Each structure stands twice: as structure tokens, then as C-alpha cells.
Amino acid sequence: MAARTISKFPLTTAQFTDSDSRRRFDLHPSRRVRALRLRQHGLPHPWLGTNNLSLQSSHIRPSILKRRPVSATVSFSLPTANPERLSSTEKVPKWSRRAIKSFAMGELEARKLKCPTTGTEALLMGILIEGTSLASKFLRANGITLFKVREETIKLLGKADMYFFSPEHPPLTEAALRALDWAIDQKLKSGDGGEVTASHLLLGIWSEVESPGHKIMATLGFNDEKAKELKSLSSEPGPVDD
């Protein structure tokens, strides 16, 4: 019924003559000029932080970042007490990546404990922190863990002043330098090729009898027999995880 009632009303469409359309849609000359300027230069939008918001389509080319070639030099040598060795004609063996990481972790551990220098005890902790070398696995298998070494270090050397800040790279002690050189010398004496490993570093720490690292290892049960066992394991042919 509602549909029939609605259908009785004639549907009319709006019709505009040419004069009406010109009258309704033609702009005043000043407005026409302003519209043209807005179309060319954009709309004023102060709330957007700019006075020109262009409506024109623009073809923006993506900016191409110019990348400079990066050249990095990786050092496979550690500090030594004999710098003339590096400049001599003698071929100095390189340190393995695990040994270098152990050294870096030891230096970082010295900073964490607020030590002014990096000693043999810090190098020992660095080997344990690195965790994947043959030397690290051998220490853990014999009950020497990072927690125990850290605890013995505090007992032996005392707790650092809480207001003391270590340098970014704490310098090596003389005993630590001698341990590094001992490791290189032993590798040269062996006559075989390859790298200086974390096992050589650990045995170098053990060779410094008066050093804190040696004393801590001895306190935790390391001895000459275990040093010989580690040396034998590290010298076995085949791939060594060190």
C-alpha cells in the first residue's frame, strides 16, 4: 500500500538551464584568481606545519643512497712484551678466533670487577666465559667454573672500590704479557703449523707460577699432570675445537 501511495507522486529530476548553471557555479573574478593560485601553489594549512600543501601530482624519484665501500681490518695478534717480534722476519703464528674472544672477554671481566689492569686471573675468566674452546671445556670437566674463579679472585685480590672505574682497555700486567708470549713461543717450538689456541693461553697462565691466575687454578685442583693432559689433547691430529 505504501509503495502504491509513493508511486502516485511524480518523480522529477533537477534540471538546470545554461544560465542557471553559469549563475550558480561561476565565481567572482577575484575568487577565480584565488582558486587558480591555490591550484598552482597549494592550499594553506598552518596546522600541518607548512603553508604550501600541493595538490598537484608529482613524480618523486626515490633517493638513492650512496654507500661507501667499507674496509675492515681484523687483527689476529694479541699484545706482546716483545714488539720487535712483530717487525722481524720471523713468521709469528696467528691467534685463533676463540683465543682472541677469550682475551676480549677477560678484558671485559676485568672492567666488570673494576680492576685497574687485566691480569692472568682475568684471562682465565675470559677462557671460561668464551665457553666453546677445548681449554674451557677441559676446565669445566675438572670442576673449575667461572663462579669459582671469580670467587677466588675476590678472595685473593680483594674487592674493588665501588667508586673506581676501570679504563676502557685495562692494560695487561707483566705476568699476563709473559703468558701470551709463552703461548706463542710454545707454538713456535712445536714446529707445526696452525694457530695459537686458547689451550696455549691457558698453559701460558699456568706457566706463571707467581701469578694470581696460577694460584687460583692450583687452589681449584689444577696441577702439572692436568696441564700435560691438556697439552696432549690439544696436540692431537685432526680438527681441534679450540
From TrEMBL:
Keywords: Repeat. This is Clp R domain-containing protein. It comes from the Eukaryota. Residues 92-238 form the Clp R domain. It comes from Carya illinoinensis (Pecan). Pfam families: Clp_N. PANTHER family: ATP-DEPENDENT CLP PROTEASE ATP-BINDING SUBUNIT CLPT1, CHLOROPLASTIC, ATP-DEPENDENT CLP PROTEASE ATP-BINDING SUBUNIT CLPT2, CHLOROPLASTIC. InterPro entries: Clp_R_N, CLPT1/2.
